[in-house]
Structures are given as structure tokens and as C-alpha cells.
Amino acid sequence: MKTSTLAVSMTLALLPTFASAAANPDELAAIRQQIQSLQSDYERRIQALETRLAQAEAETQAAKQAASEAQSAASTSATSSAAAAPPPRSAANAFNPAISLILDGKLTQFSNDPEEYALPGFQLGGEAGPGDEGFSVQHSELMISANADDMFFGQLTAAIASHEGATEIELEEAYIETAALGNGLNLRGGRFYSGIGYLNQQHTHAWDFADAPLVYRALFGDQLNDDGVQLSWLAPTDLYFNVGAEWLRGGDWPAAGDAHDGTGAGTLFAKLGGDVGVSNSWQLGASHWRADVVDRAGGGHAHEHGGEAAEVSFTGDSQISALDFVWKWAPGGNATRTNFKFQAEYFLRDEEGLISIAEDPIEETSYDGEQDGWYAQAIYQFMPRWRAGLRYDRLTADNSGSDADVLAEAGLDAAGHDPNRYGLMFDYSRSEFSRIRVQYNRDESQTDADDQWYLQYVMSLGAHGSHQY
């Protein structure tokens, strides 16, 4: 095909040259002979070029094959060398932490004075109470976390809170955690939320209600965090099974004593959970906390001292045992449209020691306290972005001592009243990063019931890790 095209082209090119001799038969024969000669010559040249082209293509393919084999051999050698040698260190500036900010604001209204809040039969401390009335930015969080290297992870959480018109910064968590111990083991050290109970390990912005359950308020001053170490083990089983132990300083409520040179508290916990079909899952937990308490300070009844709460302290042994249970349902395992969660916890505290009231002279009594409390709540997302929830709380206290009057003044005589509370909430989440909530509590913790209203917003800015089950 190439040869024929070339011949035709040559013929057309030569026609003008011999046009004048077209009438002579001998000249026409000569022209034909020249054309045939040229055609044969060009065919030979084209064949030679095609042969060279095929040879060049074959040589190129062979070179590519050889280069590929050499590269594969070099890669295998480099991999073997890397496996034998330690990994190279990263650059000193290779640090890109995840930073998030949680904005939490409230508008609250109470029918009782929050300054006179008390739970009969319980010594209150920490941040226990319904909070400030009116507008407030009560509890915002700044969180920074990153991998230090292939072995360690670190996280810091600072709470930015407003109390009585003053802005305070409180260190909630600052810990390191192993990332590659293997065999299901994990070690955490620093300041962190204890593994006791279910809700305690969650940050407040992840709670389903605007305030803590009464039992958390009574026993922990809302939440228990402490300095120490935590070792946990995740079993390689089909069912989720996680056990752990904590060795803690005991410097914060409800230990608040730094006993034994700052090693005076400890926790044991276990979690078991699994799935029921595609749509249901559950988790059951048990935990126990113990501390040697030294001068744990708290408030007594305000009316005993002209409107100011007595300064009450406890020294002795304190133990808290807990059970928690969670059940979740989402049709087909898809929780985006509708889902349901039931959650309940029970706590029992036994304390034995000495109660002191800071007066002149100091009043003291022996103290044997048994207190328990529980709550149950149900949260239903009835359509995308909209949820409703119900919660019920109840506390009981059975305390005794050598001086009943001192116990009463310290607020540890329940006087036959068991604090309880009903709560109802609705919230709307435009996305997983924003939530607006309205909540009503009928709080019967004291003789005079308190009608409590909360309007709350929670906004998550920046990178934020997933929440626990």
C-alpha cells in the first residue's frame, strides 16, 4: 500500500517533465522504464527502513524488560535492608496535631436559688450544683491531640469555664497513650477521666442531657478525673471484652487527699458487649474505686451558719462500686434516620472515718456512711436531626455516727428524704458538629421542688475524635 502510493506520487511528479515527448513511442517506453526503476528503488529503501524500525522496537522492548527486572531486584534489596535497620527518625518539625474547640453556652432559669442547692445525706464538692442562672458560657473545651511517633499518642483537654463572673482554665486531661504494645494491651499515663461507670469517661459535650445525673453530682462533683496510670486489655474474642486497672494519685474529689505520697486511689473496671442481630447492640460494665481520703472538704447546710455553708471535711476510707448498662437500636444498623438508646447506671458508696466541721471549737463525729444512687434514661431519634429524651434520677443515704447533731449540721442526715428528679429534653443537630437543646427538670432533691429550664448550644470546631460506645 505504501509502495503503490509512492509510485503514483512519483508518476505525477515526472509527468510534466516528459509531457513534451508524450507523442514519441520510444520516449514513452523509456519513461515507463525509468518509472519502474524508481519504483523498485524506493520499494527497496522502504523495506530497509521497515526492517530497521522493527529491529529498533525489539531492542527498546528488551531494554525496558531489563530495566524492570533491575528495579524489582533493587526494591527487594531495599525492603530487606529497611526491615533489618531501625526506622529513620522524623524531622523535628514534623508535628501536625489535631485541634478542636467545643463551644458550650447556656441560658438557665431555676425556681429555687442555686446558691442554696444541697443533696440531703451527701457531702457535695467539685462542681456539684445546677450551675449559674441566666446567660453563661459555662464549659468550653480546647483539645489538642497527635501521635508523638509510631509508639505514643498524646492528648490535652483544657476546660475554659466561667464561675461567679471569673474566667478559669482547668486542665481536664493531659495524657500519653501507647499505640503499639500488641496483644490487646494499652497503657495510659497522666491526667484522664477514670474508667469507673459509663458516662464518666465521656466529655460533657457528648452527654445527652445538659447536666450530670444526680448520682454523678453527689459522688464525683459531676466527674472523676485524676493523675495516674491506666492499664487495659482488650480480649481477642467475638464478644467485646475489656478489663483494666488504674493506680491514681487521689488528689481530686472524691478522694481529695493525696494519701500515701500521692498514690492513694485505684480503680478496677470491666466491659462486656456485643451485637444482637444487625439492628441491636449492648454493653454491660462493672467497676470499683477505692481511696484513702484525707481532709476531703465540702459544704454543709447553709442555714446553720447564717446563710454560709459550713466547711465540712472527711478523713477515712471510701469505696464506690458501680454497674452500668447500655442498649442501642438502629434499624438495619443505620442510625442516621432513627435510633434508640437506653442507658442506666447504679452506684453504691461505703465510707468509714471521721467527720469534722471547722468551728471554734472544731466539732467532730465518727462516720459510717452508706449511700447509693441510680439513673435511667432513654433517647429516641424520631427523625433525622431531631431527638427526644427522658431521664429519672434517685438517691438514698443511710449515714450514722457518734454525734447525730454534727452529722445533721454537716448535711449528712437525709431526714427521711430521698432526692429524685425527672428530666425531659429535645435537641436538634444540624450536623454532627452542632446541637441546640432545650431541657426541663423537675428536681425534687430538696423539700421544695425546683423547676429548672435549660437552653443550650454545643458547637464543635476543628478535628475531633469519635466518641465512645
Helix content: 10-25%
Q: Oligomerization state of this entry?
A: single chain
Number of helices: 5
* CATH T-level fold name of the largest domain: Porin
Question: Which overall shape is indicated by the principal axes computed on the Cα atoms?
Answer: elongated
Per CATH, the class of the largest domain reads: Mainly Beta
Number of E-state strands: 17
Beta content comes to: over 45%
Looking at this structure, what is the CATH superfamily of the largest domain? Porin
**SSE order:** HHEEEEEEHEEHEEEEEEHEEE
Distance between the termini: 75 Å
- The domain count comes to 2
Structural class designation = alpha+beta
Record the strand order, biggest sheet: 1-3-4-5-6-7-8-9-10-11-12-13-14-15-16-17
Major sheet description: 16 strands, antiparallel, barrel
